[in-house]
Structures are given as C-alpha cells and as structure tokens.
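Dear Dr. L.,

I hope this message finds you well. Following up on our conversation about the binding site, I have prepared a predicted three-dimensional model of the protein together with heme C. For your records, I am including the exact sequence and ligand specification that went into the calculation, followed by the structure tokens. Please feel free to forward this to your student if that is useful.
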Amino acid sequence: MNHTKPLLITSLVVLFAGGLLAQKPQPKAAGIEAQGYKWNAEYGEKMEAMKKKGDVTAGEEAYETCAACHLPSGAGRPDGTFPQLAGQHPSVVIKQIADIRAGLRDNPIMYPFAITLTDPQQLANVSAYIQSLPIPHDNGKGPGAELATGKRLYERDCQTCHGANGEGDASKFYPVLAGQHYKYMLRQATDIRDGRRRNANPDMVKVIKPYTDKDIDAIVDYMSRLQMPDKKAAAKKK
Ligand code: HEC
Ligand code: HEC
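The resulting structure of the complex is given below.
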C-alpha cells in the first residue's frame, strides 16, 4: 500500500462509498444471552477465518479502506471515535468484525465496510496485517487523578483476562488493551456495563455491573497507561 497517498483523499473516497453503502442498515440482534447463545459461540465465518493463515502482504492492501478511519498506522484517534487497532490479536479482530456483521455489536459507521469483508481468507489477511503493526505508546490517556484506585480495581477484577500489561489472550479472544485510547475504553466499558454492547463476555459483564461511573473512569485511566514490554508479545501469544 502507498502510505504517502494523502489520507484526506482516501478518507473522502471511503466516506463517500460509506454513504452509498449505508443505505443497508446494520441489523440489531438481541444480546447473546437473550438469544440463548453461548458467548463466542463457534459459528460459521469466524471459525472459517480462524482456520486460515493470514497473509500480511495481501492484508496490507485490504487494510487501505480501514486506514481512512483507523489511520495507516492503526493508531485510531485519541478522542475515542476510532479505536487503536495496531498489534491486536487476529482472533479479536475476526470476532469483533463477525459480531458487528451479526448485529451483536452496534457500529453503524463501520458496518458498510464490515459487510465487504466476507471472504474468510481476506479477513484473516487483514487481521494478520493489523497484528504486524507496532503498538503506539502515544494513545489518549485519562486525567490521572485516581490511578491508585484504578490499579487496585484492575488487579482485582480485570487483570485475569486482560493481563498485567494489557496483553489480553489470543486463544481466548481477550483483546489487547495496551495502547488503547482512554476515551474509547471509557465508552466501551460503560456500554458493556449497561448492556448496550451486546457481544461482551458474560463474566466481564458480571464484574463490571456494580461499578459506578467514577470507578470505571479510574480503572480505564489506569488501563490507558499499560504498555506491553515487547510489542511482539501479542504475536508470541498467538
Ligand atoms: C468509516 C470508518 C471506519 C472504517 C472505514 C473502518 N472502521 Fe473499524 N471501527 C470504526 C469505529 C467507529 C469503531 C468503534 C465503534 C464503537 O465505538 O464501538 C470501529 C471498530 C473496529 C474494531 C473493534 C476494535 C475493538 O477494539 O474491539 C475492529 C476490529 C475494526 N474496527 C476493524 C476494522 C477493519 C479491519 C476495517 C477495514 C476493513 C475497518 N475497521 C474499517 C470505524 C471504521
Ligand atoms: C472473563 C474475562 C474478562 C474480564 C474479567 C474482564 N474483561 Fe474486559 N473484555 C473481555 C472480552 C472477551 C472483551 C471483548 C468483548 C467480547 O467480545 O466479549 C472485553 C472488552 C473490554 C473492553 C473493550 C475493549 C475493546 O477493544 O473494545 C474494555 C474497555 C474492557 N474489556 C474493560 C474491562 C474492565 C475494566 C474489566 C474489569 C472491571 C474487565 N474488562 C474484565 C474479557 C474480560
């Protein structure tokens, strides 16, 4: 891919295409539990894509459409509109895109693009490319006022899944959160607590349910400062 191509032009083309495609509204499925599904049930396209070996070079080309929003570096935006993707586990990228397509996670902005990624090989390719990108450290951070509280709560309730350094767990579909933007995580954590993000792991929903907005703020602020010691840690855990 040509990284020197002005991002603005790519963005305009993508947003225009999105406008045309957006006529197809995103389906809105009830939450996984409401439907009587198991979390992360092994359904079709996700398992197909998981079986394929991703090709990073082919993925780089496919990533061009994604770059308009998530940026060529994968860094997203500190204002939380677009998440940081670089270094994410392929399993997580594949699951989230499949869930968005299935209407389990609302994302009207990205939906028109998510539905173009139906080929399991291409989904595996773009995920492999995303994983190969180094995780930036200049992600959006919180105000830093309640870090001790945030750390205590994180270690008590979140670390078993998200890891001491925010590395997640590829084999369990737990996302890398090291380098993720504070404002994005704040929105997601609140949406998961309040049931708006309907694809979330029920064990996470259970631990986060009793949290106040202030608790969530403290914990996500702490999380926004986590760094994986080795950016390839995500790749190794595959
Ligand atoms: C038009 C803008 C746009 C484009 C193009 C786009 N995305 Fe997104 N994407 C978003 C937004 C907005 C979110 C966050 C939605 C939310 O807040 O829940 C998102 C979320 C995601 C997530 C979930 C991240 C997480 O941490 O759970 C993944 C994975 C993702 N995008 C991958 C892609 C890939 C791969 C492509 C290219 C095929 C792509 N996106 C193209 C806007 C876009
Ligand atoms: C049982 C494992 C588990 C526990 C415990 C857990 N999480 Fe999660 N978390 C997940 C999974 C899995 C996802 C991705 C959503 C999905 O597909 O289920 C996630 C997603 C998130 C996200 C959104 C990430 C993104 O990229 O969109 C945030 C923020 C988050 N968790 C914060 C927390 C906090 C804060 C706690 C502790 C209060 C916590 N989690 C506890 C498994 C867990």
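In brief: Residues 83, 95, 157-158, 160-162, 173-175, 177, 180, 185, 188-189, 199-201, 203-204, 207-208, 219 surround heme C (ligand 2) (CB under 6 Å).

With kind regards,
A. P.
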